[in-house]
Specification:
- There is one protein chain.
- The protein has 29 helices and 24 strands.
- By secondary structure, it is of the alpha/beta class.
- The protein has 2 domains: 11-393, Glycogen Phosphorylase B (Rossmann fold, 3-Layer(aba) Sandwich), CATH 3.40.50.2000; 477-698, 3-Layer(aba) Sandwich (Rossmann fold).
- It binds pyridoxal-5'-phosphate (PLP).
- Pyridoxal-5'-phosphate (PLP) binds next to helix 5, helix 23 and helix 24.
Length: 736
C-alpha cells in the first residue's frame, strides 16, 4: 500500500523524526518541521485558514491510523529512547476508540478532517470531549436496548494530547469560557484542551482537533455533568448548556492559541453561539467599549451582516429533532443579557416567540449554506424559502482510505489502472476498463469472500460470546441463534447477506422489510434460498420510538426463522461503531437503506459499501438519487414521487410502511436471483465494478472538501490548488 522502501531506513533516526515539540506539548507521528508548518499556517496574521466546528467527531483509530500502519509496516515495536518507546507502545497497544460520536454527522466530520489533512488544507477543528463519550449499547432480547455508560481513557489513547500551559509547562492549559447567571454575574467556567492529531497517510500534514473538556474541578458541578455525555438530553437546560459549551469556547480558544482563521465552518448548527461572539467583537470594534449600551438594532444587523461574510454553514437534516430550539427562559441562566438581545433579534422562532431557534440563526448569518445532497437541497429550499437563493448542494462523501477494506486495497494495488488510488479517488473511474477483465473480476470476488468470512467469523464468535456471558452480565442474548448448537448456529459466508446499520431513528425505518414477515418468508421459501439479515445500530437513549424499533427487530428473528424454515436468519449486532461499520460495509453482499423519502438528507453508510464495490438496495433518497445511475450500481425501490410539504411528516401514518415494504417484496426475488443464479451472477459482479467506476470518484471526501473550499475564501498555494481543482472536476454537486 505504500510507496516508500522500508529497507533503507535507519529506524532510530526515523523514529526521532516522528517526534515534535512546541510550547503546548510533545507530539508523536509527525516531524518537527510538519508541526511547525501546520502551526505557522494556522497562526499566520493573514488568517488564511479554517475553523471547523462540530458537536461530534468520529475518527476511531481502529479503522484508520496512519502512524500505527507505518510502524507496523516498518516492523517497529520499540525504541531505545524511553520517551519514544512510550509513544510507540501507546500507538501499538493503546485503546483504539474515541467514543465522541453518535452517528453519521460525527463520522462525516472525521472523514472530512482526514481529507483536509490529505490535501494539506490549513484547518483546525473544534469540538467537545465527553468524559463518558456516547452511551454504550447492551441489547437484551427481553428488554431491548440497555444504555450503559462508556468507559474510556483519553490519557491512554494514542494521538490524543492534553495541551500544556506554555507559561507553566507542568500544568494543563485551561481556558475560561463566558457563562453568566440571570443577573449577568459571570459563572467561573473553565475547560482544558485535548488535541487529537488527524495525521495524513504520508505523515507530512495533520489537522488538529481541539476538544474542550469541561470536566475539571475549576468548573461548576452542573457544567461538569453537562460535559459527561454527547447529546445528553436529560433536560432542556443540559442540552442548551452543551451547545453553549461548544459555541462560546471557540473564539477564546482560538485567541489563546493564536489561531488566526477568519473563516468558520459550522457542521450543523450546534455551535452557532460562536456567531453571537463574533457579532459582539464586531460591535466592540466599531462602537467601542460601551457597545452593549449604545448599539442600536440596526448596528446589530449591520454587524451580523459583516460577520456573515466569514461563516459557512452546512445543514444536515430536514428532521425536526436535528434542529435545536430552546425556550428563551433557559438562556437567561446561561448567557449575558446582551447575548440574549442578539438572540432576540436574530434567533426568535417564527412559530413561537418564546423559543430561540438555532437553525434560524445559522441560516440568517452566513455567506453560504449548503445541504448534503441534491434532493436535500430542494427540500431545504422548500423549508427555508426566505433563504432559498443562497442554499446550494454539496453532496457528502466518505474518506476512501478509512472505508476500503485491506483485502480490497490489495486488489486495487495490483492493477495499474488504479495507480495512485490512495491519493486520488478519481482513479477509480478506470474500473470501467476492467469490467471484462477476468483476473480483476476473480480477484475482486476473492477479496470480497475474504471480507465476508471475516464478518461472519466476527458474528459467529459474538453469538457464542453472548451465551457465555449470561452468568456474568445477566444479559439475555439478543439473538436466539446464540442458543443453537454450532452447526445450526453459525452463519455461512456463502449465504446471501443483506446489511443494515445506522442510528435507529424512526424515519430510517429499520423494521421496514419485516413489516410483513409472512411475505418475506414466503419469498425465501419459494426459492429455497437462504438469506442472512445483519442489523446494527443505536437509538438515542431518550428516543422511545427508536428503541421500540430495535425491540421489534429482536422480536422478528424467531418468527422469520421459523416461518422460513431456518432459511431466513436475522442477527442484531449490539453497540454499533466504526469498526463494526467497516466490517459490515465490506463483508455483506448488498447494503440496505430504507428511510422515508425525503427525510434522509444524504446517508453515508451506503457510500462506504460502494467504496468496497458492494451494491446498494435503497429508497431513492439522499445520495442514492445521485448514486443509482439507472441501476448500474444497485437497486431502488419505494416511493419516488415529487416532494410535497406533507412528505416531511414523521408520524407513523406518514412513514409509508405498507407501500414501501410491498415495493421491497416485489424486488426481493430479483435480488436473490442475481446473487444465486449462475447465469445472472455476472450482472451482479458488473454492478460491483460499476460502483467502483461511477460512485467512488463522486462520493469521496476529497471531492467534497474541494467543493467546500470554493465557499471558504481561502487561497491555496499552486500545487495544493491544482490538486484540489482535480477533485473538484470529478463532480458538481449543485448541478441539476
Ligand atoms: C457511516 C456511519 C453512520 C452513518 O450511517 P447512515 O447510513 O448515513 O445513517 C452511522 N454510524 C456509524 C458508526 C457509521 O460509521
Amino acid at each position: 500500500m505504500h510507496n516508500w522502501d522500508s529497507t533503507i531506513i535507519d529506524k532510530d533516526i526515523y523514529l526521532r523524526d516522528m517526534l515534535a515539540v512546541n510550547s503546548l506539548g510533545t507530539f508523536f507521528g509527525v516531524s518537527q518541521q510538519v508541526l511547525n508548518q501546520v502551526w505557522a499556517e494556522l497562526t499566520a496574521p493573514a488568517g488564511n485558514s479554517l475553523i471547523y466546528v462540530s458537536m461530534e467527531i468520529g475518527a476511531d483509530l481502529d479503522v484508520f491510523h496512519p502512524v500505527k500502519s507505518r510502524l507496523e509496516y516498518l516492523g517497529i515495536t520499540d525504541s531505545p529512547d524511553p520517551l519514544i518507546d512510550a509513544f510507540v507502545k501507546k500507538v501499538i497497544r493503546g485503546p483504539q476508540k474515541i467514543p465522541n460520536y453518535s452517528g453519521g454527522l460525527g463520522v462525516l466530520a472525521g472523514d472530512t478532517l482526514k481529507s483536509f489533512a490529505a490535501c494539506k488544507i490549513p484547518v483546525v477543528a473544534i469540538s467537545l470531549l465527553y468524559k463518558k463519550g456516547y452511551f454504550s449499547q447492551l441489547v437484551d432480547s427481553r428488554l431491548g436496548q440497555v444504555a450503559w455508560a462508556t468507559e474510556w481513557e483519553p490519557h491512554n489513547t494514542p494521538g490524543l494530547y492534553l495541551l500544556k500551559n506554555p507559561l507553566y509547562p507542568d500544568r494543563a492549559l485551561e481556558i475560561e469560557i463566558p457563562f453568566f447567571d440571570d443577573k449577568d454575574h459571570p459563572i467561573s467556567t473553565y475547560a482544558q484542551v485535548w488535541m487529537k492529531m488527524e495525521i495524513n497517510e504520508s505523515l507530512d500534514f495533520f489537522v488538529p482537533e481541539l476538544l474542550l473538556d469541561y470536566s475539571i474541578p475549576s468548573s461548576p458541578e452542573w457544567i461538569r455533568k453537562s460535559a459527561d455525555q454527547l447529546y445528553d438530553s436529560s433536560s432542556e437546560r443540559v442540552r442548551a448548556t452543551q451547545r453553549r459549551m461548544l459555541g462560546a469556547g471557540i473564539l477564546h480558544l482560538a485567541e489563546l492559541l493564536g489561531i488566526s482563521s477568519k473563516t468558520l465552518h459550522l457542521n450543523e448548527q450546534h455551535g452557532v453561539v460562536v456567531i453571537l461572539h463574533r457579532i459582539a467583537d464586531q460591535l466592540l470594534n466599531t462602537l467601542g467599549q460601551d457597545f452593549q449600551t449604545i448599539a442600536t438594532d440596526q448596528d446589530i444587523y449591520n454587524a451580523a451582516a459583516q460577520v456573515a461574510q466569514n461563516i459557512v454553514y452546512t445543514i444536515h437534516t430536514p428532521v425536526a429533532a436535528g434542529h435545536d430550539r430552546f425556550s428563551t427562559s433557559i438562556y437567561a441562566g446561561l448567557s449575558h443579557t446582551f447575548c440574549r438581545r442578539l438572540l432576540d433579534l436574530l434567533a426568535r422562532d417564527k412559530d413561537n416567540p418564546n423559543v430561540y431557534n438555532f437553525t434560524s440563526l445559522a441560516m440568517k448569518v452566513n455567506r453560504s449554506t449548503n445541504s448534503v445532497s441534491r434532493l436535500h437541497r430542494n427540500v431545504t429550499k422548500q423549508q427555508f424559502p426566505e433563504h432559498a437563493d443562497k442554499i446550494t448542494a454539496i453532496t457528502n462523501g466518505v474518506h476512501h482510505l478509512t472505508w476500503i477494506s485491506f483485502a480490497k486495497a490489495e486488489v486495487f494495488d495490483s492493477f495499474p489502472e488504479f495507480h495512485n488510488w490512495q491519493s486520488d479517488p478519481g482513479v477509480f473511474a478506470n474500473a470501467g476498463k476492467l469490467l471484462t477483465n477476468k483476473k480483476f473480476r476473480s480477484y475482486l470476488e476473492q477479496a470480497w469472500a475474504h471480507d465476508t468470512k471475516k464478518l461472519m467469523d466476527f458474528v459467529n464468535a459474538m453469538l457464542v460470546r453472548h451465551r457465555q456471558q449470561i452468568h456474568e452480565t445477566w444479559i439475555e442474548p439478543p439473538n436466539f441463534l446464540s442458543f443453537l448448537d454450532d452447526k445450526e448456529r453459525n452463519l455461512d459466508p456463502a449465504v446471501f447477506t443483506i446489511g443494515f446499520a445506522r442510528r435507529f431513528s424512526t424515519y430510517k425505518r429499520a423494521d421496514l422489510i419485516f413489516e410483513n414477515i409472512d411475505t418475506l418468508a414466503e419469498i425465501i421459501l419459494a426459492r429455497n434460498q437462504p438469506v442472512n439479515f445483519l442489523f446494527s445500530g443505536k437509538a438515542h437513549p431518550s428516543d422511545e420510538p427508536g428503541k421500540s424499533v430495535i425491540k421489534l427487530i429482536l422480536d422478528s428473528q424467531d418468527e422469520l426463522y421459523h416461518k422460513s424454515k431456518g432459511l431466513g436468519r436475522l442477527v442484531f449486532i449490539p453497540n454499533y461503531d466504526m469498526q463494526i461499520a467497516k466490517l459490515m460495509v465490506a463483508g455483506v453482499h448488498v447494503w440496505l437503506n430504507n428511510p422515508k423519502r425525503p427525510l434522509e438528507a444524504s446517508g453515508t453508510s451506503g457510500m462506504k459499501a460502494a467504496m468496497n464495490g458492494i451494491p446498494n438496495i435503497s429508497i431513492m433518497d439522499g445520495w442514492w438519487a445521485e448514486g443509482y445511475h439507472n441501476g448500474a450500481t444497485g437497486w431502488k425501490f419505494g416511493f419516488e414521487a415529487p416532494i410535497l410539504p406533507g412528505d416531511l411528516r414523521e408520524d407513523h401514518d406518514a412513514l409509508l410502511y405498507a407501500e414501501d415494504s410491498a415495493s421491497f417484496y416485489r424486488l426481493f426475488p430479483e435480488l436473490l436471483d442475481t446473487f444465486y443464479n449462475k447465469e445472472k451472477r455476472s450482472i451482479y459482479i458488473d454492478k460491483c465494478i460499476m460502483n467502483l467506476a461511477l460512485n467512488v470518484p463522486i462520493f469521496n471526501t476529497h471531492r467534497m472538501v474541494a467543493e467546500y473550499l470554493q465557499k471558504y475564501g481561502i487561497s491555496l498555494s499552486g500545487p495544493i490548488e491544482k490538486n484540489i481543482r482535480k477533485f473538484r472536476k470529478l463532480y458538481q454537486s449543485d448541478a441539476e
